[in-house]
Amino acid sequence: MGEVIVITSGKGGVGKTTTTANLGTGLASLGKKVVLVDTDIGLRNLDVVMGLENRIVYDLIDVVEGRCRLKQALIKDKRLENLYLLPANQTRDKTAVSRQQMIDLTSQLREEFEFVLIDCPAGIEMGFKNAIAGAEKALVVTTPEVAAVRDADRIIGLLEAAEMEPPRLIINRLRPEMVRKGDMMDIEDMLEILAIDLIGVVPEDQYIVISTNRGEPAILDKHSRAGQAYRNISRRLLGEEIPFINWEAGSFMSRIKKLMGLG
Amino acid sequence: MLEFLLRFFGRDTASSKKVAKERLRLVLVHDRAGVSPHLLESLKNDLIKVISEYLDIDTDGLEVSLTHENDAVALVANIPVLRVKRTFKSIQEPAFKV
């Protein structure tokens, strides 16, 4: 029986889909059998981030409405043998699927896969409620901004009310140089406010844009800082104790400058 | 230019991180109280329980709310007192000193 993990944030544009694509790819490259489920009905994106947009025949709605078998709708990843995508429908809306249908779908998927990662739509309405319906674990993605942290707080409250396991936090797009200048909230600030466990910090990385342009998750690139962070989070999902990279400490030169009172 | 100089000499005018954190803290006080309307009700009931040990209060006239003034959040409780309990002092101190 596999684990069902929902990746959520409340606010849009903080990196849920990128996180789902990278962690799925990370877990699959560690040998796990993984399926990614895009529940953003009407605004499907995960297929494009994974570079699989040309292979879609059937989607999630076709499966729940019985127009195809689950296996027919699963798209095999280009790069990894044991990674699959169940894409969202692009012509319907969030009301096209019910909570019970999502619970049934995820329980079918968890028999086949070790990890079922659910990419949740932004917002707290129907789409969110459906996305969390069949999941027992949640990862909350936020960025170091007031609006994103506020929405994350709201989402954490709703996840607690739904009696799920305590969610874990991913801080995305941290800019270490801005944190050092005191112009961006640091990790400790956000953990203090949200009072949940941290599972990883992903630094801002131009490579994410490049890899998304190409449809190849950044985690596959050895040189990407964000990729390194996602590799660590993938291992932590498997229960490994991986020390956190201190993105805030800065380079050797910036620490010297700080010592001299110039930083 | 002045801002640049202040920054250059490390005398940063209030860092924007601190501003962000403070704004967030305030906004969450209201969000969280709003998310659980039971919070204030439950707090009110507990207040009645504790205060009733010391004072007789008018529980119907009791009002509890969060207010937002001068960048600070305060808990305001308006509690009409009917009478002070006479028995309290005798519990604290022995009635007779030997």
UniProtKB/TrEMBL annotation, chain A:
Entry keyword Cell cycle: yes
InterPro entries given in the database record: AAA_dom, MinD, MinD_FleN, P-loop_NTPase, ParA/MinD_ATPase
Keyword Transcription: no
Keywords assigned: ATP-binding, Cell cycle, Cell division, Nucleotide-binding, Septation
Binding, ATP: K11, G12, G13, V14, G15, K16, T17, T18
Domain AAA, chain residue ranges per copy: 3-158
Gene Ontology cellular component list: cytoplasmic side of plasma membrane; cytosol
BP GO annotations: division septum assembly; negative regulation of cell division
SUPFAM superfamilies, alphabetized: P-loop containing nucleoside triphosphate hydrolases
GO molecular function terms noted in the UniProt entry: ATP binding; ATP hydrolysis activity
Described purpose of this protein according to its UniProt entry: ATPase required for the correct placement of the division site. Cell division inhibitors MinC and MinD act in concert to form an inhibitor capable of blocking formation of the polar Z ring septums. Rapidly oscillates between the poles of the cell to destabilize FtsZ filaments that have formed before they mature into polar Z rings.
Family: Belongs to the ParA family. MinD subfamily.
Name by which UniProt lists this protein: Septum site-determining protein MinD
Originating gene: minD_1
UniProtKB/TrEMBL annotation, chain B:
SUPFAM superfamilies: Cell division protein MinE topological specificity domain (SSF55229)
InterPro entries per record: MinE, MinE_sf
Entry function: Prevents the cell division inhibition by proteins MinC and MinD at internal division sites while permitting inhibition at polar sites. This ensures cell division at the proper site by restricting the formation of a division septum at the midpoint of the long axis of the cell.
GO biological process, one term: cell division
Assigned keywords, A-Z: Cell cycle, Cell division
Source species: Neomoorella thermoacetica
Name of protein: Cell division topological specificity factor
Protein family according to the UniProt entry: Belongs to the MinE family.
Sections of the chain in a coiled coil: none
Gene3D superfamilies attached to this UniProt entry: Cell division topological specificity factor MinE
